[in-house]
Amino acid sequence: MRRPYIAGNWKMNLTPSEGAAYAASLAEAVAKEKPSCRIMIAPSFVSIPAVLEAVKGSDIIVAAQNMADHLAGAYTGEVSGQMLLDLGVKTVILGHSERRQYYGETDEIINSKVLLALSLGMDVVLCVGETLEERKSGNLENVLKRQLEVGLKDVKPEQMEKITIAYEPVWAIGTGETATPEDADAAHKFIRSTVAAIYSSSIAENLVIQYGGSVKAGNVKALMAKENVDGALVGGASLSLEQFLPIITYDK
Ligand code: PEP
Question: Are 168 and 212 in contact (CB under 8 A)?
Fold first, then answer.
């Protein structure tokens, strides 16, 4: 049984004090509403300490949105996995399309980050997804296959329990466009079959696959009702309690 997993990627939004105030109200709401899903929030690096403090005692996972592809050294402006672990952060989002698009992260770079995070014992949310051009030209499956095969290269079968996949069609991120629940389910099914081919059907069956791309209170129920959709990675609608609470309590 895959436990639903809903995550909020704050991107470069909310200052440390704004983030801490919101996270404290989220922790309070979670204590009251007791959502059945696993909940994660990913603030910016500088907000992490204040947010960790604000959610102390709750089950909310605080993750990083990225990390360096090196352990330590002369890499100005980077944040290492060890630094995150030292703060108490055990989960990292890797390969987000904005990292791929704006910061030139290739599947190979993302793979080295995945391997590094796993070697440190961290949990990884690995993002994959196609652009509109790739979808329109019939390359959806080729793109997902490449992103999974290269992104997971040298990841051992026993490490796969540390991996969550987030399927995020690039054309649906921050655009208000959402893949239909049927489109999302078909892509997730393909991801699961690709993971089954690389590893095994039992690893694929246990793999949690989140959908991301303009998820909101109004569409989360229909997406989560699909067999292969096990959660959501939410951007814009994760930035306020008003929008995020109905998403994480979608089944109430
Ligand atoms: C995201 O950043 O991962 C995302 C899906 O953003 P949004 O929900 O705003 O489309």
Answer: yes
CB 41 within 8 Å of CB 61: yes
Domains held by the chain: number: 1
Residue nearest to atom 1 of ligand 1 (CA): 235
Per-residue pLDDT of 167-203, as tens digits, reads: 999 999 989 888 899 999 999 999 999 999 999 999 9
- 8-67 pLDDT, tens digit each: 999 999 999 999 999 999 999 999 999 999 999 999 999 999 999 999 999 999 999 999
Provide the CB-side half-sphere exposure for 74 (13 A, CA). Answer: 0
Residue 135 is part of which domain span? Answer: 5-248
Verify whether residue 168 is a known catalytic residue: yes
CB count, 10 Å around CB of 144?
22
Tell me how far the alpha carbon of residue 15 lies from the centroid of ligand 1, in angstroms: 19
Could you tell me the pTM of the whole model? 0.98
The C-alpha angle with vertex 201 and arms to 198 and 202, in degrees rounded to 5, equals: 115
- When the pLDDT of each residue in the chain is averaged and rounded to a whole number, the result is 97
CATH code of the domain containing 175: 3.20.20.70
Q: Confirm or reject: Cβ of 214 under 6 Å from ligand 1.
A: yes
* Cα–Cα nearest to 124, from 159, 99, 88: 159
Task: Identify residue 16 by its one-letter amino acid code.
Answer: P
Catalytic residue at 188?
no
